[in-house]
Amino acid sequence: MQSDHTPDHLLDPTSGPISAGVSGRPGSRNLIYFSWACLVYVIFVIVWGAFVRASGSGAGCGSHWPLCNGQILPSTASVTGAAPAAVSVATWIEFSHRITSGLSLLMVASLFFLVRRGSRLATSAKLRSEQRRAAGWAFGFIVGEAGVGAVLVLQRLVAGDSSLARAVVIALHLANTLFLVAALVWTAMALGVPEAAQSGSGLSSGLSGPGPDGRPLAAALFKRLRRVAALFLVVGASGAIVALGDTLFPAKDLISGMAQDLSASAHFLVRLRVVHPILAVGTAWALWLVLGAIESSNKNNDLVSKVGFYARFFLVAQVMLGILNWLLMAPHWLQLVHLAGSNALWVSVVALLFALNRIAKATPVG
Ligand code: HEM
User: Fold this and answer.
1) What is the pLDDT of residue 28?
2) Is 178 in the pocket of ligand 1 (CB under 6 A)?
């Protein structure tokens, strides 16, 4: 008998398998839907957060947190007794980011508690702890997001601030965001992918075959992909610093922008602008190679080939969006599309890591 706090339908085992024929999904259908909804909503909040930065609205609520200009709701009345003033667009943009990110904290916290209760449906103790661990990390990283957000506002590292401290905090913010997204993907996959799908008949004769060290090939490819994923974090963090440089020191045109990037007297944020594209193209090539190795080794695992296809698609799209971003000098809309693209690519890379990890763990060694 579950407690009365828990919405029954989310833990109702009878709301089991989504698609006919595949039984034993280790999470209830609604909990699986909720976990993917959390992921999509969190990515929306991340992209809206970039609009707060790109529109220079970060100081819209002053250096107050969590209150906005000292008030719960932005209002014309001033807290200092000064004449009432219209609420600025920047205030509404910053306030809406606080509301939407506050809601994402509540959603991920609910997911954490629901998975703790719902993981009793899991088909093994190992899977139960994997679901709970992933949801626990997601909860930890979203609390981290709120903390970094508070530091940005309370330390006034917003609007026109071009300090090294802001560059470091913005890069950490982006890295923490990628870890949050990774933990949410892992939670949703651990709830949705039946253990059976990655063992016995689900094992890919290629990926579960012996790798260079005698262990399953999936284990070796998992390690290679994990190394590239670590590089991806650096690419993302360097992108956030470039985005800050573009916001604070927008180039008049491409040529003068490139001259600025190469000038020894330019601000460090401007000179760092060349780093991201170079790192990104190098990492993109490394990722393309490991995705090719996974695809050529995978004989018949549908999940690996499907997620692998998405990863290759988003990789090509992301590099093209980046080049367009650079050529068009990062218009706001394209900055948001580029950031959404990097999250879509990251989701598919983490989903592939999950599938390879499952095959490696499910393949008997020796
Ligand atoms: C795997 C490929 C790539 C990934 C994952 C990636 C990721 C990112 C991320 C996370 C940001 C920060 C966005 C923000 O905080 O708003 C960014 C910004 C940026 N990226 Fe990339 N990027 C990639 C490739 C490229 C390439 C190839 C170029 C150019 C040749 C490029 C140019 C830019 C520019 C100009 C910005 C700053 C403007 C903005 O905010 O969009 N990116 N990138």
Assistant:
1) 83
2) no
Distance 338 CA to ligand 1 centre (A): 6
Other beta carbons less than 10 A from residue 323's beta carbon: 13
The pLDDT assigned to 133 comes to: 96
Task: Tell which one of 173, 246, 271, 276 to mutate to probe ligand 1, the residue whose CB is within 8 A of the most ligand atoms.
Answer: 276
pLDDT at residue 262 in the model: 83
Listed as ranges, residues in the chain with pLDDT below 70 are: 1-27, 75-86, 120-121, 195-205, 366
pTM metric for this prediction: 0.88
Check residue 3 and give its pLDDT: 43
| Residue 80 pLDDT | 54
How far does the centroid of ligand 1 lie from the alpha carbon of residue 232, in Å?
Answer: 11
Please tell me the distance between residue 52's alpha carbon and the centre of ligand 1 in angstroms. Answer: 17
Tens of pLDDT, residue by residue over 162-214, are: 999 999 999 999 999 999 999 999 999 999 987 655 554 555 558 988 888 88
User: Of all atoms in ligand 1, which is nearest to the CA of residue 339?
Assistant: 13
Ligand 1 neighbourhood includes 261 CB (under 6 angstroms): no
pLDDT confidence of residue 137: 97
CA of 289 to the centre of ligand 1 (A): 20
312 CB less than 6 Å from ligand 1? no
